[in-house]
Amino acid sequence: MTKTSLTFIALCAALLWVGAVHAQTDSSLTCPQPSGPLVGPRYQDNGNGTITDNQTGLMWEKKTGVPGVIPRTPNVHDANNRYSWSRAPSTNPGGTAFGSFVGTLNYGQSNNGHTSTGCFANYCDWRLPTIVELQAIVDNNASGCGANSACIDGTFGPTQRRFYWSSSTFANGLSDAWGVDFGVGDTERNDKNASFYVRAVRCGAVK
To answer: With a threshold of 0.90, does the pTM exceed it?
Structure first.
């Protein structure tokens, strides 16, 4: 095989890898939308640790625990656990948010954080939300928003009044990623190597 052919193959492999990373962090990701207008309450607690947004069709993870209570637990659903977006010196999605958190949801772990049982709620396509998806669940009219409670509907369970990661990279500075501060409902960006809170989502119409 010629040197030119080897170079071409290497280039193709590199482009495929970049494409895979981009797919995990692309804020333009779209999911199938509900076919009709919203009827009844927007959020539905499914009784299995998940919440369906009947307006967007997205399925969200419901958190557990009591915000502020430490020590943190191995349970990935614990609202007190924090995760990094990337691992220095890389700015790619290789931090604990993608590995320990999303990886556990998609490869299976029990609520006690120890026993492998299968994918969370029997779905294996959990991910971090895009910044558009994350911003869409901010509720500035929620009781206590901006004061002593998070700016989010109570159906989502315990939520920190702090910054939550999205999967969207800050285009003008690859060392940062976007997220939402649910204490005030603002969209912000932070250093990918820092540890913050997370909540998983999936396209509800796709199993």
So the answer is: no
